[in-house]
Design a protein that fits this description.
single chain, alpha+beta, Heat Shock Protein 90, 4-stranded antiparallel β-sheet, 23% strand
């Protein structure tokens, strides 16, 4: 689901194709770890970053299995995979299908190249209560 407020965000200082690739990786990841009947919501707003001033903040929130806090930083490293390797597949949307461990690393690299930041917040991983995860991407607004 796409939040209508996204259309209100001022222009970003970002290459649209690179941004699309980064968002694709984050959104596909959210879909993979959200069971049937769950939801993935993309929203955005302008926020004040204490170091960089006004930024666009894009949020990808899912109602999936979540991520343990000790994995919040490492999931953005190349070849890092959560879950059982035997469940991994080449499907882009197979539930808990995993992958090569490159998607979030690629997204992180793109966001950093665009002078932004990316992180995740989640209470933890639980395949019964589905605490979900929210990925945050902050990018600079175009200077006037």
């Amino acid at each position: 689901m796409l939040d209508d407020a996204i259309r209100e965000i001022p222009p970003l200082m970002a290459d649209p194709e690179l941004l699309k690739k980064a968002l694709d990786h984050v959104i596909v990841n959210a879909i993979k770890y959200t069971p049937d009947g769950g939801a993935v919501t993309v929203s955005a707003s302008v926020v004040e970053d204490r170091r960089l001033g006004e930024m666009a903040e894009i949020r990808v929130k899912d109602t999936g299995i979540g991520i343990d806090p000790e994995h919040h930083k490492i999931i953005f490293e190349k070849l890092y995979q959560l879950g059982e390797v035997k469940l991994h597949s080449s499907s882009r949307t197979f539930y808990k299908g995993g992958g090569a461990g490159l998607g979030l690393a690629v997204a992180s690299g793109i966001v950093k190249a665009l002078q932004g930041s990316i992180w995740v917040e989640s209470e933890g991983r639980n395949e019964e209560t589905f605490p979900g995860s929210t990925f945050f991407i902050r990018l600079p607004l175009m200077k006037e």
